[in-house]
Amino acid sequence: MSRPSPPSSAKLIQLLDLGVETLEAYGRAELAAEDCEVIPAKGLSDEALTELGFTLGPVDPVDPLFREATLPRGWQRRLDPEDSRSVLVYDRAGQRRLRLWYKAAPYDRDARISIEYRP
Questions:
Q1: Cα separation of 50 and 84, whole Å?
Q2: In the chain, where do the E strands start and end?
Q3: Which of 69, 83, 90, 111 has the highest count of CB atoms within 10 angstroms of its CB?
Q4: What is the tally of structural domains in the chain?
């Protein structure tokens, strides 16, 4: 998996039958996956992200909500236990650094990245 993408039509129908909350959980789980290679495209400048140590790629032309990116070495994504739409990013020292917010509902899909901690 390289990015959280809208599910296929068949998968979308299956998820919507279970409710929007299920679809949201599916999208958030994709964004939190260890092999996910993207971050939301809006919220922080390229300069801010590269200063943190991100390796940035282009914004996805098919899904401009996301851009290719590699987390700094030793950083990890974890589901936010308090927000059903957020994934938290921790640095190698275990400090919470970023929030990746993703609303996967097909009628109002959106994503952004924000700083959670400033050393």
A1: 27
A2: 38-40, 55-59, 66-70, 76-79, 86-90, 96-103, 110-115
A3: 111
A4: 1
What six digits make up the tokens of 43?
């919220």
Residue 90 CA to residue 100 CA, distance in Å, equals 11
Tell whether 46 is covered by a domain.
Answer: yes
Share of the chain above pLDDT 90, in %: 57
| Three-class secondary structure of residue 71 per DSSP | coil
- Across residues 65-81, what is the average pLDDT? 95
Give the residue among 6, 96, 18, 47 at the shortest CA–CA distance from 87: 96
* Backbone torsions φ then ψ of 6, nearest 5 degrees: -60, 140
Mean pLDDT for 71-93 is 95
The answer to whether 69 and 46 have CB atoms below 8 angstroms apart is no
- Please report whether residue 4 resides in a domain: no
> Would residue 99 count as lying in a domain?
yes
Amino acid present at 113: I
Higher local confidence (pLDDT), 47 or 2? 47
